[in-house]
Amino acid sequence: MPPPEPKPRMSRETLLPKLAAHVLEHGLGGASLRPLAKAAGTSDRMLIYHFGDKETLVRDLLEYISGVYATALDMALGDRRPATRQEAFARILALGRGPGIQPFLVLWWEIVAGSARGLPGYADAAEAMITKQLDWFEAQMPEGDPDPKGGARYLLTLLEGTLMLGTVGHARTAREGLLASGLAGDRAGD
Amino acid sequence: MPPPEPKPRMSRETLLPKLAAHVLEHGLGGASLRPLAKAAGTSDRMLIYHFGDKETLVRDLLEYISGVYATALDMALGDRRPATRQEAFARILALGRGPGIQPFLVLWWEIVAGSARGLPGYADAAEAMITKQLDWFEAQMPEGDPDPKGGARYLLTLLEGTLMLGTVGHARTAREGLLASGLAGDRAGD
DNA sequence: AAGTTCTTGTAGCACTTGCTACATTCAGTT
DNA sequence: AACTGAATGTAGCAAGTGCTACAAGAACTT
């Protein structure tokens, strides 16, 4: 029986994925060093050693997570563009319901809250994630759209509102609003 | 010099306003008993005595805050209805920028985040506050609107998206989206 | 082989957390 | 005046917080 792992030296890069997994599941606000370390297979001692202090850890972690989110969005880019704004909107709404994005969505509101409170690192991550989403929307605007730039921003605004209402138990309200906007069929906003 | 206050007996009702003030300023997630008690002029011992445990305290506090928010919205009801949806939207957008509502807005994202995580008491407060806002919107829909019910929901969805984008540093994105929607003049979404 | 630097483990410190045990004071009732 | 129950103060506990001191091993350089 050979020794399976000689010495799995750790670094920020090897730590960050495990830390991110823990945070996506258990939240960011209540995360303290010892549980984080346990989830990553280390000790609080080493987290401080590698990141300096907790604030830097959170900052790096948020940056890493927003990177993961960006690549997740990239992978979800369809090969053909939707034909209408309605279809573009429905597509990203469906994406947000996929199980892969759901944990991001739960964490997202924590990031927004931290951003609103001015917690260090949160605002940058929030800004980056929204920018990415906006890029995604622009790439999804139908060809020949009269105002793709403005349209993407409009759809993004409406999407964020829809997601938020869904989070606080007002999915039905959002659905009826989308219906009235003419942007959605009767299954949108669930 | 008479003794100014003989004995200011405390109860949940006298405590809650001071607790709410502290939470609106410093946030809800990081609030612990001793700072809360200090802000209310008591001891952690008495907070537990009056509320039983911290979870109940937070629950009662959120309920109280959503009540305060509701009366704040009531007071902001104009005497005349707006003539157009644009005007209705601009009116509530201006309201959200008023200094009185700003602390609620910052706390709001914390409530949404707690609701998404399933923290006890958060979902109820979030649901109540959105319902109140929806009522407000319905009362503000212009007379003769072809679909006031759906319109109010549409405006609410768009507003929440606009507020969120503004919180994370994308006010400009929201403004351009609103412009493209035809719902706003060029000062909206700031 | 010796020396130097990078990485890790063990203990622990000062502080905060929610909450409790115990005793005391106060208000109202009889 | 005596009793009763509600309201409050003091002290503390077990657990958890971020972080550090110290030392030891591991690895790389000369």
Structure description:
The structure is a homodimer of 190-residue chains. Chain A is 69% helix and 0% strand. Chain A has nine helices and no strands. In chain A, helix 1 crosses helix 4 and helix 6 (102-117) packs across helix 7. With 190 residues, the first copy, chain A, is mainly alpha-helical. At the A-B interface, helix 6, helix 7, helix 8 and helix 9 of A face helix 6, helix 7, helix 8 and helix 9 of B. The structure holds a DNA duplex (30 and 30 nucleotides).
State the assembly state of the protein chains: homodimer
Give the end-to-end Cα distance of chain A, rounded to a whole number of Å.
54 Å
- Integer tally of domains of chain A: 1
Spell out the CATH superfamily of chain A.
Tetracycline Repressor, domain 2
Question: C-alpha Rg of chain A, in Å?
Answer: 19 Å
**Helix segment count of chain A?**
9
Order of SSEs of chain A? HHHHHHHHH
Mean pLDDT of chain A: 92
How many strand elements of chain A? Answer: 0
**Greatest interface by residues involved:** A-B, 48 and 48 residues
Helix percent band of chain A? 55-70%
What topology emerges from the helices and strands here?
2 copies of one chain form a homodimer.
Chain A: H1 12-26, H2 33-40, H3 44-51, H4 54-75, H5 85-97, H6 102-117, H7 122-140, H8 148-167, H9 171-181
Helix pairs in contact in A: 1-2, 1-4, 4-7, 5-8, 6-7, 7-8, 8-9
The first copy, chain A, binds a DNA duplex (30 and 30 nucleotides) through helix 3.
Tags for this entry?
Tetracycline Repressor, domain 2, DNA-binding, homodimer, 190 residues, 9 helices
